[in-house]
Design goal:
The chain has a single domain, classed as CheA-289, Domain 4 (OB fold (Dihydrolipoamide Acetyltransferase, E2P)). The chain contains four helices and ten strands, in the order αβββββαβββαββα.
């Protein structure tokens, strides 16, 4: 074999190896993640996007105001700011608990700002965006309208609620 032919074959082999290695290059791109606040309301597990929840307040006195709709039990004072309080169980159902023992999640999204009564906070998670699935078709009524998706938490699921849809229901 001539040296030039041998060199050409080795160059071809090197080129082929380089191509194969180039094709195997893996770009490690981390998937977009979202913060989720998992809570219970009326004995049922739900979640909000973490970006919509500013803080969780301990139980406090809710001041009744005449002529408010049934979903608004009253107003609270948060460091000098007066905030409305939404009883989300009015829309979602579930067992009723004493509102004086409920936590209050302060939700802020765009021009909407209100407290939302919840029974307890179960977890705050940082999940891949792809882990949010479409809402279950078995959801009915207003819960279906408020659902932004479903997330799996081990063997259980939680319905991810849309604050914008809740705001629309309250302001109707």
């Amino acid at each position: 074999m001539e040296p030039s032919t041998e060199r050409l074959k080795s160059d071809e082999l090197l080129d082929e190896v380089k191509r194969a290695l180039h094709e195997k290059d893996v770009v490690d791109v981390e998937e977009e993640r979202v913060k989720i606040v998992v809570f219970r309301s009326g004995g049922i597990r739900y979640a909000f996007y973490g970006s919509d929840i500013r803080e969780i307040l301990p139980p406090r006195e809710i001041f009744w105001v005449p002529s408010l709709p049934a979903c608004l039990p009253g107003l609270i004072n948060v460091r000098g700011d007066i905030e409305s309080v939404i009883d989300i169980r009015h829309f979602l159902g579930g067992e009723q608990t004493d509102v004086t023992k409920c936590l209050i999640a302060i939700a802020v999204r765009g021009d909407f700002r209100s407290g939302i009564l919840i029974d307890s906070v179960e977890d705050v998670l940082d999940l891949p965006l792809s882990s949010i699935k479409p809402p279950l078709s078995s959801l009915g009524g207003v819960a279906r309208e408020l659902a932004a998706g479903e997330i799996e938490l081990g063997e259980q699921t939680a319905t991810l609620l849309n604050i914008d849809m809740l705001a629309a229901k309250v302001t109707l």
